[in-house]
Write a structure and sequence with these properties.
alpha+beta, Rossmann fold, D-amino Acid Aminotransferase, Chain A, domain 1, Dna Ligase, domain 1, 3 domains, six-stranded antiparallel sheet, 13 strands, 21% strand, D-alanine--D-alanine ligase, peptidoglycan synthesis, nucleotide-binding, ATP binding, cytoplasm
Length: 313
């Protein structure tokens, strides 16, 4: 589980022509573009023949023209991480990095992911689901208590997420989440440390603990702030960390995810892990967590890109 992955492809030419798809039109476009520049540079340094495409339609045109043998997917959010791209490429018989259609769709849906985990003994914060034209979160406050998190059910990068400390903040938080998803998740806030487990093949990477002076690890803390602190090693005893890495890999497996990804969880004051979500196409910017965790294992960025590309084999 914790061994350093080894290359399976000996020569760059073995990958053929790689289509790196980035950007798209989801709310996570800028994150994808930033990571795409870094990945494209790594592909170049690795000597891998590649072409960069902005969004799925441009990629499909490249495939039809015979310029793409396999796809490195770095699209985040709907259209790239939700199974739609994976399904189209499956029909075209073009291999792609990361998870397949079914697991991409499941992991993108925070509500259904939590249902699967609950059924299989993985703890996840208690929650309520709001949908329909007349969303009212007062029952959620009554059943879950405060503070709460309000989230779109199908988006990443903490876009549209709010921490709600009192009744007056709830309506605004729901309205913000509804801008990004017709289904809104209201989740009990678990007080504790925020941890992230990168997954690469069958390896669970060293845990990262994130600390921010902001209310939570939001979009600004992830991509813009220089005040966010990343601890890797995470500071936990080795045996405790190993156990949590095993739990993270099991949470990843239960959703059918494969290839690479990231598992997010909270660790409360009693040492209990509460799992939040799985990302099947994590960020690859200079603030991103998977590259930091890989570096802790001695895997540089260029090698990480090579190993991620191997998940398309």
């Amino acid at each position: 589980m914790n061994g350093v992955p080894e290359r399976r492809m000996a020569q760059a030419a073995g990958f053929g022509r790689v289509g790196l798809v980035i950007g798209g039109d989801s709310a996570e476009r800028e994150v994808s573009l930033n990571g795409g520049r870094a990945v494209a540079a790594a592909l170049e340094r690795n000597g891998i023949d590649h072409e960069v495409f902005d969004g799925p339609m441009a990629l499909f045109e490249g495939i039809r023209a015979g310029r793409v043998d396999r796809v490195f997917n770095l699209l985040h959010g709907p259209g790239g991480e939700d199974g739609s791209l994976q399904g189209a490429l499956q029909l075209m018989d073009v291999p792609v990095t990361g998870a397949d259609l079914a697991s991409s769709a499941l992991t993108m849906d925070k509500v259904r992911s939590k249902w699967v985990w609950e059924r299989n003994g993985i703890l996840t914060p208690p929650f309520a689901v709001l949908q329909g034209p007349d969303m009212d979160g007062r029952d959620a406050i009554h059943s879950l208590g405060l503070p709460l998190f309000v989230k779109p059910a199908g988006l990443g990068s903490s876009i549209g997420v709010s921490r709600v400390e009192n009744d007056e903040e709830l309506e605004t938080a729901i309205a913000l989440a509804r801008r990004y998803s017709p289904i809104v998740l209201v989740e009990k806030a678990i007080e504790g440390g925020e941890y992230f487990a990168g997954i690469l093949g069958r390896t669970s990477l060293p845990l990262i603990r994130v600390e921010t002076p902001r209310a939570f690890y939001d979009y600004t803390a992830k991509y813009e702030s220089d005040d966010t602190r990343y601890d890797c090693p995470c500071g936990l005893p080795a045996a405790v960390e190993d156990g949590l890495r095993e739990q993270a890999l099991r949470a990843f497996d239960l959703l059918g995810a494969s290839g690479w990804g990231r598992v997010d969880f909270l660790l409360d004051d009693e040492g209990q892990a509460w799992f939040l979500e799985v990302n099947t196409t994590p960020g690859m910017t200079d603030h991103s967590l998977v590259p930091q965790a890989a570096a802790e294992m001695g895997i540089g960025f260029d090698e990480l890109v090579w190993l991620i590309l191997e998940t398309s084999l």
